Glutamyl-tRNA(Gln) amidotransferase subunit A (Thalassospira marina), 452 residues
Amino acid sequence: TEAHIKSMDAHRNLNAYITETPEKAVEMAKASDAKRAKGEAGKMEGLPIAIKDLFCTEGVQTTAASHILEGFKPEYESTVTTNLFNNGAVMLGKANLDEFAMGSSNTSSYYGNVINPWKTASGKDLVPGGSSGGSAAAVAAGMALAATGTDTGGSIRQPASYCGIVGLKPTYGRCSRWGIVAFASSLDQAGPMTKTVRDAAIMLGAMAGHDAKDSTSAPIAVPDFEAALTGDIRGMKIGIPKEYRVDGMPEEINKLWDNGIAMLRDAGAEVVDVSLPHTKYALGTYYIVAPAEASSNLARYDGLRYGQRVMDDGDSLDDMYMKSRAAGFGKEVQRRIMIGTYVLSAGYYDAYYNKALKVRRRIYEDFANAFGTVDAILAPTAPSAAFAIGENEDDPVKMYLNDVFTVPASLAGLPGLSLPTGLSSEGLPLGLQLIGKPFDEETVLRVGGVLE
Ligand code: GLN
C-alpha cells in the first residue's frame, strides 16, 4: 500500500484519480495486517486497488466525473465495493472516468483528461480509453494493483486494451449494480481491471455474487474462477466472427488477431469461422438503447437531491432544473440526454427505441446460435491503438466507432475478456477479446490464460 501511495504521488500528472484516500488506505492496510496475523485473510487481503468514481463509497466523495455531483458523499457503500472490502481489498482512491461513464477516451471528465502512461516515440500524450480510463491508467502505471471498472458498451475492455492491461466485463447480472451510479441499467456491469488474467479471476470472485438489492442480479453461485485457469484448452472450439473483419481495419489489428488464432491452434484448440449477421446494426442499436436509458436515469439530477444547484432569486422550479442541469452536465452528457429523450418521445418511440430492442434481440440470437457450436469467440477489442488526446473530439460518430467490437457482447449481456497480446507499429499495446456464453466467465478466463 505504501509503495502504491508513493507511485500515486509520482504519477499525479496522469490525473488517474479524482480523489485520493491515502490515510484511509493505510488504515485499511493495518486492519488487513491484523486480520492476517489472526489467520483470517480474505481473498484480496491487503491488496491496494483503485475504485472507479462511479461506485458509491460511504463518506468518500463520489462524482461520476460530473460537475453536478461535485461534493456528493454517499451515506452507503455499493455492493461490489462492500464485497471487495469484506475480502480484504484496500482502497487507494477514486479513479477518473468519462462523465457518467459516457465516452471512449476519458476526455469528457469534468476533472480533466487522463493521460495514458504509454507514449509513442514522439512522446505525444495519448488517451487511456474510456470510460474506465483512470482505472486502466492507474493499473498500467503501478498506481494500483488492480481497479474496478464498469462496462456498458466497452468501458472496461477498451481502456484495458489501450493501456496494456487485462479487463473483464462479466455476464450481465454477475455483479450487483446496487450503489453504482446508473448510466444504462440494462447494460451496466462492473468488473475487474488487472495486470494478469489470474488477478482478474481472483478479483471477480471477490466482487461477484447475488444481491437482493439489485433485481437484475443473478441468483447463481460464484464459482472458483481461479480454478478455471488450467492452461488446458485442448479440444475447445473457438469461433472467429467473419463480420468483425470490417473494411478499413488496420493491418496490424488483423495480424494481432491472426497471431491469437495461431496461438490457440498451437495449444490444441479448434478454430472455426462463425457468423454474427446482425453485427453491423450493433453500434446503431447501442447508441439508441444506451442514451434512452441514460436520459431516464439522469432525470434524478434535478438540482434538489444531489450536488450542484443553480438558481437566481425569483426563479421557478423549472428555471432551477434548467439552470442546474445546464451548468452541471457536460456536452457529451447533454447530447446523450437529448438523443435519449428524442428516441423515447411519442411518435418516435416505435421507429427508434422499439426497433432497437428488436434488433438487440437478434444480436443476442446471433451469439446464441454461434455458441451452439463454439465455446468462446475471439475478436479484437478495439479497431486501433490508443489515439492522441483531442483526436476524434469534434466528431462524436467517429468516437462512437471505437466501440464497434465491444458493444455487441454488451447488448447480448455476455462476458468479455480483453487482454494485451501485442504492440502496434508505434509500440502501443493492442488487445484481443474473448466473448463467452452467459455465466461462463470460466471459459474466457481459461482461454485468456493461454493467450496471455
Ligand atoms: N464508449 C461507450 C459509450 O460511450 C461505452 C461506455 C461504457 O461502456 N460505459 O457509451
In short: The pocket of glutamine is lined by residues 101-104, 131, 151-155, 183, 290, 403 (CB under 6 Å). The longest strand covers residues 416-423. The longest helix spans residues 349-370. The CA atoms of residues 285 and 359 lie 7 Å apart.
